[in-house]
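Hi everyone, sorry if this is the wrong subforum. Our group has a chain we'd like a structural model of before ordering constructs, and none of us has done structure prediction before. Sequence below.
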Amino acid sequence: MSNEDGERSGHPKEVITDENIKKIHKMILNGRQLKLNEIADILKMPTERLHHIIHEYLSMRKLCAKWVPRELTFNQKQRRIDYW
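Answer:
Right subforum, don't worry. Here is the predicted structure as tokens:
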């Protein structure tokens, strides 16, 4: 009997890498109306990990079907007010 886990098939444990974060950020900026499932399918990544990366590492959230930075600058907020 052993306490160690054997090799398993499936997704790798660690998908939160600098490379993946950069890919996700680039995809969101190029197509802000992408759905979470679409990005996850393209990158072959679980949606919950993708959601974690977008919210925690990129500090973005979904707003009106577009991904936007969570913290807007004063000028960005003012543009949004002036637009509506």
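For your construct planning: The mean pLDDT is 79. The longest strand covers residues 60-63.
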